[in-house]
Write a structure and sequence with these properties.
transmembrane, membrane, 77 residues, mainly alpha, 3 helices, 88% helix, DUF3953 domain-containing protein
């Protein structure tokens, strides 16, 4: 289940990033960062399940920072 979520979130992130890259329209940047943060969260949970506490902690920290950045983008953008 986590693997499927990771792939779904990563594909959504890739599609939003590609849209912004090719059209030079960055109105969906906050959504891209939000889905990237969800990808990092799923990867962090997977790392914790494998017993890799260091990588899991790092990925959860990246998730929290990316989530904060996307929320700031939603509120200020």
């Amino acid at each position: 289940m986590l693997k499927i979520l990771r792939y779904v979130f990563a594909v959504i992130t890739f599609l939003l990033a590609s849209y912004g890259f090719f059209t030079k329209d960055f109105t969906f940047g906050e959504y891209m960062i939000f889905f990237m943060s969800l990808t990092m969260l799923v990867m962090g949970v997977e790392s914790f399940k494998k017993g890799e506490r260091g990588m899991g902690s790092f990925l959860i920290a990246v998730f929290l920072f990316s989530l904060y950045v996307s929320i700031e983008g939603f509120l200020l953008g």
